[in-house]
Write a structure and sequence with these properties.
The complex is a heterotrimer. By secondary structure, chain A is mainly alpha-helical. Chain A has two domains: 4-66, no CATH class; 109-384, no CATH class. Chain A is built from 17 helices and two strands. Chain A has a two-stranded antiparallel ribbon with strand order 1-2. The relative contact order of chain A is 0.12. Chain B folds into two domains: 32-150 and 286-362, Rossmann fold; 153-257, Rossmann fold (3-Layer(aba) Sandwich), CATH 3.40.50. Chain B has helices at 6-21, 46-65, 85-97, 109-122, 135-138, 152-166, 180-196, 215-224, 235-247, 263-269, 288-301, 309-326, 331-340, and strands spanning 32-39, 73-80, 102-105, 125-128, 145-147, 171-176, 200-206, 228-232, 253-256, 277-281, 343-345, 348-352, 358-359, 363-369, 372-375. In chain B, α6 crosses α7. Chain C is mostly helical. Chain C has a single domain (2-286), classed as ABC transporter involved in vitamin B12 uptake, BtuC (Orthogonal Bundle). Chain C has eleven helices and two strands, in the order ααααβααααβααα. The longest helix of chain C is centred in the first third of the chain and has 31 residues, at 2-32. Chain C is globular. The N and C termini of chain C lie far apart (53 Å). Classes of the chains: A mainly alpha, B alpha/beta, C mainly alpha. At the A-B interface, α5, α6, α11, α14 and α16 of A face α1, β2, α3, α4 and α7 of B.
Chain lengths: 408, 376, 300
Amino acid sequence: MITFEEIKRSLLISLWFVFLTFPIMVIRVNSIEKIVEWRWMNILYVAVGSFVLSMVFRYFMKRKEMQAGAKDDDQDTLGQSFVHKILSIPKYRNMLYGGILIIATVYPFVFSTYQINIMTTALMYVVLGLGLNIVVGLAGLLDLGYVAFYAVGAYTYALLNHHFGLGFWIVLPIGGLLAAFFGILLGIPVLRLRGDYLAIVTLGFGEIIRLILENWGEFSQGPSGISNISRPSLFGLDLPLEQAIIYLYFLMILLVIFTIFFVNRLQDSRLGRAWIALREDEIACQAMGIDKMKTKLVAFSLGAFWAGIIGVVFAAKTTFINPASFTFLESAIILSIVVLGGMGSIIGVIIGALVLILMPEYLRALSEYRMLAFGAILVCMMVFRPEGIISSVRRTYTYKPQKNSNRS
Amino acid sequence: MRVMLNGKFVAAVAGLMMAVAVPVSAFAAGDTIKIGVAGPHSGDLASYGLPSVNAAKLVADQINAKGGINGKKIELLIEDDVCKPEVATNTATKLVSDGAQVVLGGICSGATKAALPIYMDAGLLVMSPSATNPPLTQSGEYKNFFRTIAPDDAQAQLDVDFAIGKLGYNKIAVVHDKGDYGKGFAEFAKKFLEDSGKAEVVLFEGVTPGAVDYSAIVQKIKQSGAQAVIFGGYHPEASKIISMMKKKRLEVDFISDDGVKDITFIKVAGDSAEGAYASGPKDTSNNPLSIAAVELHKKTFGSDPGAFFENAYSAMLAMTNAIEKAGSTDLAALKKVLQSEKVETPLGAISFDQKGDAIGVGFSVYQVKNGAFVEL
Amino acid sequence: MDYFIELFFSGLTRGAIYALIALGYTMVYGIIGLINFAHGEIYMIGAFTAFIIATVLSILGFPAIAIFVLAGFAAVIWSASYGYTIEKIAYKPLRHAPRLSPLISAIGMSIFLQNYVLLAQTSDFLPFPGLIKDFQFMEPIAHIVGSTDLVILVTTTVVMILLTCLIKYTRIGKAMRATSQDRMMARLVGINVNRIISVTFVIGSALAAIGGLLIASHIGQINFYIGFIAGIKAFTAAVLGGIGSIPGAVLGSVVLGLTESFATGYVSSDYEDVFAFSLLVLILIFKPSGLLGKADTQKV
């Protein structure tokens, strides 16, 4: 299996990495006391590590290529065909739904508070991902400032609660609507822009919102943030912490079900099809009589709406917010969820959110190597599954005259 | 796609699998004392969090080498909160679930505020080496919170008195780094300056941390005619600003807080730092415990300790001492010991007041002379 | 008036700094249409390499000028190697992937590299040696333009001119332009597209290394996180100028630097970034492909 040629190549690669990492891995200097520390052992680690990794990498690359070959024949890769096949049979599907519902219900009574807490966080990101999926996955508008709307929602609740004592349930729709309003506000001037120009403007918009929250102290209490935000109440009852966490968990479950239902229906609607058409070809789409501007604006504001809703939940969950939670990195993570999960695919986005949000928590076992591993996994996932974990299945009608049709 | 609920299936399965992989720790206080260490251990603020981890490790190793506290070894549970409130709540629930009995941490005030209600609910004692936001203790809301560092307002008062009284300035520029610590400090400084009636705040502005160049703000300070700059923030920005002041030939005094009173400030700013003032905990460099702690750090980790190392070291000593004296980790018992007994630490002999602030952590103003902070 | 001139030169220096990083961004974008978020990290690695080599050399007792040249050289070599390797690992396998996949890969790479340097070196801020000594002849105007500022301004100008010449007149430059216009067609006329893309990454990364060296000597300190913030600003500048255009990147950087400087000087530094990003939004509304970017006409 492993040829001499491959070993030679891996050896060369490991030599290259030894060279590459030499200054940073081997030398450590203290420029004040003029001490140079040579960590020669690190060379060995790098050499062996990169040798092994390059072998593994090549193996997987080969497998990927083989799969890509197989895909042409079968129109489907293994993983998704399995998922989709199960879902296409009503009997299995209903069993699955039932199973999930039972597990989701039992979950908080089996696991510790910590587990419930991070699962709630993950569910929040599921909704965020589904929201951004409307903008990026369906309408094809790259939004790098999604976190701005999330911040709008969070601050809406924090401020209204702080100043007027308004409750969670009243602010929930207000936060969503306000965020949607901001979405339109941003959308009107910038939707003329295409592709990456749109991306950088949305990034700028996200930063502007954060900077205003940071600097306009009279309005937002600045970087010291707003504390003591009330948790959601249950029919006017204030719950103790542990029960409040469970309550929030179920709330999120309901919200996730609602979002999935909503987005799913949306996708098949006239509007959803207009988005997909817009994503594929703007000009053809306009020619078909779709109002480009309106369609894009609706995508933007609907995406923002979900971010606003989750912003409110976020403020209620942490009970403390400050602008530090709404940085560009947060937008990047949400975008990663959408792309990693599979753009436009609802199950994909859900899996993406669970993987990306739960992974850093479970990587805590690696302590300081946590984020290193996170970055590496992100790269590897993209390299080996560029379409995302579960890519969206287009409604296709294929005509197969014979097996050996021409491939381009 | 006609799928509606399968996401939850995946959620649950993923959750299940992972939960099985990471077994839920038992709550029972076994034969170890579990001390949680929370703070930023990755990301842009890691340099403020990691020194506390080192401090905790050193103290724990020393105590364990002597047989532990009342026969129980210390076990550290080190958790990253990236200084973000939302991660900090997860970190806090994780520490509580894992059975931490006391917590060293909360490096940033914001993250600490978010996490405290969770610790309080579980009845855990929390001691921060660096969260200086005044309401943390002064609001009286967080009964389980202690800290080995003085709150921002006390320091701001000291710096303002120094600038007006000792140095006799009446036109002062107040600059901050927009962070919760820096801006909080700067706002107090501004308030005290205005209240004093003797000095005028000619400039009150924030700089963007991490910016590649600070010459514009330096030119603005020059333009404002300030005689001195009071800076609220940490040493990286301080050293950038003070070097830029030297480069732009602006000679005004630079007065700052204990985020700047760090040896790294002098190392990084080099000659430019000469003559700068910074307030900080009273000089402890002659304190044998402090010398020993720094030496031990050098020996163990091969480098100088970083920010808040001594505060964290002291907090560990105070907490372990309290656990030993109280004979348990019960919050009320620990509080009683902390508030009644002094403990020898690198910061001096300290105890705590009713609100949770350390008594005995005196503050004084330092000046950089010949590459070292000299107490004035 | 003095104040205006002071602010003007502050802004110019800041712009030149952004430009050194923005050039690399714009080159990579121009050729493969990828927002290379890891570019800021390459700049950071360049600064770290320069720091390490400079310190080792100064301990060995080399003269200042030799240290400056050798450290710069090392930074360029290693940053270029990192750029090359990153392209091979994280972007090349994704060449035919959906448009956003390489972007996520780039974000992952950026996180990875930050933490790699954090773990292999330190989380602390390190004092970067002042490699550029004050020139005597600059002393009378040192309060306006420092010696380091001068070096940065000159370097940026030289680099921009060289790069423009490279792209306009050399064989490899032609190949780059061909690749960026139509990759398939370029391949058909016998251009080794993979090699051209590698070369672009190498040049862009080398520029980032020069930037790392100069900027670190300017601000006097480095840390594993410096690349991220500088990278975002440089990217903004590149888009402002019209992404893909070399003079555009420099112009955009200067406009951005001046805006920030004047915003700080005449309004408040609290809102300097708000001004910077608002300017970006405004310019793009009226000129959707940046200051010097070519408006791409869409054919049907």
